[in-house]
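Hi W., the nicotinamide-adenine-dinucleotide complex you wanted:
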Amino acid sequence: MNPTPRLKGQSALVTGANSGIGLEVAYALAMDGASVVVNYVTHPEAADDLVKRIENDGGKAMALKADVSNEAEVQAMFQQMCAAYGTIDILVNNAGIQKDSPLEQMSLADWQLVLNINLTGQFLCTREAVREFLRRGVVPERSCAAGKVICMSSVHEVIPWAGHANYAASKGGINMMMKSMAQELAPRKIRVNSIGPGAIQTPINREAWDTPEALNRLLTLIPYGRIGQPSDIGKAAAWLASDEADYVNGTTLFVDGGMLLYPGFSTNG
Ligand code: NAD
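Structure:
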């Protein structure tokens, strides 16, 4: 537990928190004092393991199942969270998937599945969180803001990605959704931002790092010379959710080891 927890007394919901980035974001928020809901849709045992790890390390957490692309399940999850923790202060829209294929082979089902989870899921969860933020308003002892939303985007909200048109479209969509929501909600003291991870070592991109050849190819895209870890994103999320970031609104914090610096131009062009 952080000796001077920045999120004390606050409650946070992290979607897709039983794996990869979401797992370390939920852990980091809990170690900064927040009571955390660990959302999952499959593998309840992984969600339970995280709850135990948080509790063993002095934090507070509970697991709740919901498919973020299902309106009724999302609404039920927020009701359960508010019944248990009283309210929500922080939402991290993390859940996301890839269904990659060349464009001419991409099925409508795979296009829609990625958009439904990665983009519509973030809309559905944010809407429920915002309803509660507006109902409750600012509680100055807890935070300067009535609520904080962090959308997990990607460097692919900027960098086009051949063979991943559905995924890149979902992340580009998150960028404009996040900015529009931030503009709309700022006067009501709600902060909405994104984190744009570069290459982070998680199950979603295993084939990009699980052999030395693949990892070496990947590293040519990362000026800082290492693959990112989920805890790199956890630390950024805890700061962004805290009042230390109170004047940060409507922006994407890229945590990417310099992937967006066009590394190909360092030796060419
Ligand atoms: P991951 O596969 O380890 O985790 C994804 C999580 O989302 C899992 O817990 C999964 O169960 C959950 N999920 C999937 N569908 C869901 C649904 N319908 N409802 C609720 N949960 C659902 O992958 P990750 O790398 O940790 O990805 C987390 C987020 O980070 C995603 O939004 C991803 O696009 C983004 N991201 C990852 C990287 C990277 O390099 N790993 C880079 C940029 C962005």
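The mean pLDDT is 98.

W.
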